[in-house]
Write a structure and sequence with these properties.
Strand content: 5-15%
Order of helices and strands: HEHEHEHEHHEHEHEEEEHHHH
Radius of gyration: 20 Å
Shape: globular
Number of helices: 12
Strand order of the largest sheet: 7-6-5-4-3-2-1-8-9-10
Structural class: alpha/beta
Number of strands: 10
């Protein structure tokens, strides 16, 4: 595919969006902060890039330490327009979430969490909402066999499904269900979509696994090129149906599918409007970015100073114009793909969504 094959109006929109991204990068207004509040987890997911366990070697960060770092952002962020997202590990393994939520609420921050749902009872959900919880994401990766296979726990599907069905009943709670598309659940996506609609789920998000960590050596986690391309046809058709709001994850430029399978054009906001505080105090962007992407540590650095004066590797991405990206005419729209898809020491691109789609479409035509 070439840029000239993109419909004219979409090319204009993509060019305008590129200017918007440059302006957002220049301003780099922080409005989304992940807190990796624990590395402990009650699952053993096949695609996890972490070494999560119930007794993780890295202890949970204290609430006081995180709040102290957050307080350093006074004057840098508008709390009412900055979402704090608790992630892990499994955030619900902490026993002080209500206290954490109350402290965030008092400071004016809306807050949310990402969870596997296993510990989310109706009582717990209402308790968290009463302490300011405003958004929640629960993972459900297809029906029972596929989900439990991926998550490594025979009770996971049942508990997550029960938790999800609680969400539509809570007024003013923003939520979505997130699904990892893989070869175990691919053929069930239509039926699974219809089940989510039956449960009253309003928003659904699908992502695909990139080949690093545990996922690198498991072929069942990776859609083949034909399935990968077909996934976007499915998402496009579902969005046009209007019965459930479905978005593909934020990773990867998708060529002609841009504007068709998610609400916005591709924009990796890591380090531009998104930061994270990891369990050991490291300051990064999205929690998937570690090692050479780390910009500081809250135990020795001021979070506001780090956000304002570092993050250069995120805001000037010219270093990504190497390898297959060097001569790619889509680079001005993509800027080297999501940073989590690059080797941190060499800058080498691990996975190109556009090339994968093109490969799948070629196989369908042959």
């Amino acid at each position: 595919m070439s840029v000239s094959q993109i419909p004219f109006r979409k090319r204009i929109a993509l060019n305008l969006f590129s200017k918007y991204k440059r302006n957002e990068t220049k301003i780099h207004q922080l409005n989304y902060i992940f807190w990796e509040c624990t590395l402990r987890c009650n699952l053993n997911c096949q695609h996890c890039g972490s070494d999560c366990s119930k007794d993780a070697a890295v202890k949970d960060m204290s609430m006081a330490d995180f709040l102290n770092a957050l307080d350093q952002l006074k004057g840098v962020v508008n709390p009412n327009k900055t979402l704090i997202v608790l992630t892990g590990g499994e955030a619900l393994l902490r026993n002080d979430l209500e206290e954490v939520g109350a402290q965030l609420y008092q400071r004016g921050f809306p807050w949310g969490m990402v969870t596997n749902g296993m510990l989310l009872s109706q009582k717990k959900l209402h308790s968290l909402v009463n302490c300011g919880l405003r958004s929640i994401t629960i993972s459900l990766d297809g029906f029972e066999e596929a989900h439990n296979w991926l998550r490594g726990n025979k009770k996971s599907y049942q508990l997550a499904a029960e938790a999800i069905q609680l969400l539509p009943k809570v007024p003013n709670l923003k939520y979505d269900v997130v699904t990892c598309a893989n070869r175990m659940n691919y053929n069930d996506l239509v039926q699974f979509r219809d089940t989510l609609i039956k449960w009253g789920v309003a928003e659904w998000r699908i992502f695909t696994v990139f080949p690093i960590g545990r996922a690198k050596d498991n072929d069942m986690l990776q859609l083949n090129p034909t399935e990968f391309s077909g996934l976007f046809d499915f998402i496009k058709e579902t969005r046009q149906g209007g019965k459930i709001k479905l978005n593909y994850g934020c990773e990867g430029f998708l060529g002609s599918f841009e504007g068709e399978v998610r609400d916005n054009f591709f924009f990796c906001r890591a380090g531009i409007s998104v930061a994270s505080v990891l369990a050991d105090g490291s300051i990064s962007a999205c929690p998937s970015l570690r090692d050479n992407f780390i910009q500081g540590n809250i135990y020795k650095d001021n979070l506001a100073e780090v956000w304002n004066n570092r993050f250069g590797i995120y805001r000037n991405r010219s270093w990504t114009k190497t390898g297959e990206c060097a001569a790619c005419e889509f680079y001005k729209f993509c800027e080297g793909n999501g940073l989590h898809l690059r080797k941190e020491k060499t800058g080498e691109l691990l996975f190109c969504h556009l090339h994968r789609i093109e490969s799948g479409e070629s196989q369908l035509l042959s």
